[in-house]
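[step 3/7] inverse_fold.run input=structure_tokens len=289
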């Protein structure tokens, strides 16, 4: 089978990447009161909320001074590359940095919370759960899972895709390229496809905190003897739901960070910031330690 090459991007996704490019022109230190961030689209909504609350807090504590935090998408690969190049204060990656990658070893990183990867279908789909081997068969060989005959993947470089394929043991393998097997450039596009799939014959995967609308997240059986496990934050935290990954911010070094950027990290890791992570559907190890 030929590898998926079709990347479908909505206007919103193009705009997200466009804004990331614009941020790159500013880069680190473009303003004394500015922080620039790019990367994982799975983390974009969460980081936007954290940025919004930190900006309010900063203004309250500094006589109304306006701090600007720009958050752009582009995918985990973009976030890592931008952080390496010094284009951004932080990169967002929805996967661990690769300890074997020479470039990624030049970066420092911090896990801000955990996230589950939900396997999603339209609410009209007849599937009630899915197994690891069923997903491998569909994504690699095109083998149908009941009424589900086609699958959706994320683009190369996506942290969500990396996490999904690593957990299934198919990372680096060629995906099925049959008609209907599509590859998307953002979480929102995957979600929209499944929401519109009234026939219920397509399957995809998104960040657990992104599940909404006319979709359902399927219990997942990793075939390790534990059976099908519901995709819930509690099950990610206790380790029983196997499809999970960290949300990571990365940067060149602490010495290169501005005091504003360091303050933003401190806010994210505070109880207040971690509660925002939980409110947005992620899982805080800090609050549950």
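[step 3/7] decode complete -> sequence:
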């Amino acid at each position: 089978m030929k590898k998926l090459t079709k990347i479908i991007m909505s206007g919103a996704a193009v705009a997200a990447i466009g804004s990331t490019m614009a941020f790159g022109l500013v880069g680190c230190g473009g303003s004394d009161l500015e922080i620039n961030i790019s990367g994982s689209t799975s983390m974009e909504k969460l980081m936007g909320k954290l940025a919004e609350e930190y900006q309010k807090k900063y203004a309250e504590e500094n006589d109304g001074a306006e701090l600007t935090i720009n958050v752009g998408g582009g995918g985990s690969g973009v976030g890592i590359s931008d952080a390496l190049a010094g284009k951004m204060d932080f990169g967002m990656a929805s996967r661990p940095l690769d300890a074997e990658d020479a470039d990624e070893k030049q970066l420092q990183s911090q896990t801000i919370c955990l996230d589950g990867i939900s396997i999603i279908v339209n609410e009209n789909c007849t599937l009630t759960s899915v197994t690891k081997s069923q997903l491998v068969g569909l994504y690699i060989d095109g083998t149908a899972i009941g009424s589900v005959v086609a699958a959706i993947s994320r683009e190369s470089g996506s942290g969500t895709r990396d996490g999904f394929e690593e957990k299934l043991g198919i990372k680096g393998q060629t995906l099925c390229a049959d008609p209907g097997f599509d590859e998307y450039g953002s979480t929102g596009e995957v979600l929209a496809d499944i929401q519109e799939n009234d026939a219920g014959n397509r399957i995809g995967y998104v960040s657990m905190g992104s599940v909404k609308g006319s979709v359902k997240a399927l219990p997942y059986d990793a075939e390790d003897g534990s059976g099908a496990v519901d995709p819930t934050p509690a099950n990610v935290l206790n380790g029983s739901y196997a499809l999970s990954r960290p949300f990571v911010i990365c940067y060149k070094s602490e010495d290169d960070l501005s005091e504003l950027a360091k303050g933003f990290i401190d806010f994210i890791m505070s109880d207040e910031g971690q509660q925002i992570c939980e409110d947005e559907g992620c899982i805080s190890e800090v609050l549950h330690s």
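[step 4/7] annotate
The first helix runs from residue 11 to 26.
Residues 132 and 168 are 6 Å apart (CA to CA).
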